[in-house]
Each structure stands twice: as structure tokens, then as C-alpha cells.
Amino acid sequence: MGKVLVVNPNSSAVVTQGIAAALAPLGDCFEVTDLPDSPATIASDEDVARAGLGFLELVRGREDAAVFVTACFSDPGLELARAALTQPVIGVQEAGILTALARADRFGIIALSPKSIPRHLRKMRMMGVEGRLAAELALDGVSAAASGTDPQVYEQVRGLAVQLGDMGAGAIVLGCAGMASIRARLEAETGLAVIDPVVAAGAMALGIVKG
Length: 211
Prior knowledge:
- This protein is an alpha/beta fold.
- It has 2 domains: about 5-90 and about 200-210, Rossmann fold, CATH 3.40.50; about 95-195, 3-Layer(aba) Sandwich (Rossmann fold), CATH 3.40.50.12500.
- Helix content is about 45%, strand content about 20%.
- The protein has helices spanning about 15-25, 45-60, 80-85, 90-105, 115-125, 150-165, 185-190, 195-210, and strands at about 5-10, 30-35, 65-70, 90, 105-110, 135-140, 170-175, 195.
- A 4-stranded parallel beta sheet has the order 2-1-3-4, with helices on both faces. It has a 4-stranded parallel beta sheet with strand order 6-5-7-8, sandwiched between helices.
């Protein structure tokens, strides 16, 4: 079976370890790495652009991988890599949203920061799914690592998930790869389908390598 190379485009070891832990139940075909020269949180459009170039540089040299995943919710480098490579390339935002659409008529997203929302909306317009978005709500600019480890941040995430449910979302997409560890608890406490975009992307990649 082919290898799936999952790249955390930031430099946070905590986030990288969380991604690896989230994917572990899917099997041993996943290799998880990060970009040490990137910031610890991808926050600005400039961060996304730089991370995208770093992602492309890394994956270009990995002919041994059957599938690549860019594991940041802004999908840095996705289009660049798809244009440059013959192997499939999956973005976690795309995968998370497509999985949410399979679970509910309308979905919501919890973003790390209000600054992230405009670029997420651009991507959804490109995907043609904006009409099924109930809303996207944001945390107040927390770090990627804190989004899945800080108890106070979890309470904020839970509150936003409840709001999204009240706004008509039947599925919630976690808008950061760092949130993987809170998915199951959030789903149990809210009664909503909660999608970890990393696992969604991993499942798609697994379908490709096993297909």
C-alpha cells in the first residue's frame, strides 16, 4: 500500500503530534511532518502563501509518496501542488467541508481568527458550496496549538458550536488541524456531527491508496 505524506504547514510540534495521533487509528500508511521554517500558526494571507511554497518544495522531492495532504485549514499550496505533481493532493478544508455535506444539509465552521474567514469564504465560493454554509464563527485569534489543548479555548469552541447549531448547522467543521483532540468530546456534548478535517482528508487519502 502506498504512503500518504501529511504535511502540517506550520512549525508547531504540538500540532504535528496531534495530527499524527488523529490519523493513527486509520492505519500505518501515514507519514506526518511539518515545515520548521513556517510560523507556529498560519494566520495571515502572507503566512498562507509562504507555507504554500514551503509545502510545494517539500512534496516535489517525495516521489515515494502516493498521496499528499496539506494539513492546514487554509489549504496552503493545494493548487500549486496539484498543478506541479502527478500524485493526488488533498486539502483538509476541502475534505472537511465535503465530509460535512455528507452528514448534514447545512454546515458551520469554527475558525481560529476572524481574519481567516474571508479566505475560507473565497475557497467555499470556488467549491460552489457557499449556499449550504449556515455560518462561520471565529475564536479571537488563538494559536493552532491552543485550539486543541487549552480548556478555556475549548469552552469558547463549545459555545460557538452551539451557536452554529442554533443557526441551522447540522455539522460543524473544525477550522484548524490543531483541534483534532477535541472532536469526540465536542460531538458528544453538542449532539452535532463534528468533523475533524484532518481525519476527513486522511480517510479520502486512504480510499485512494487502497482503491
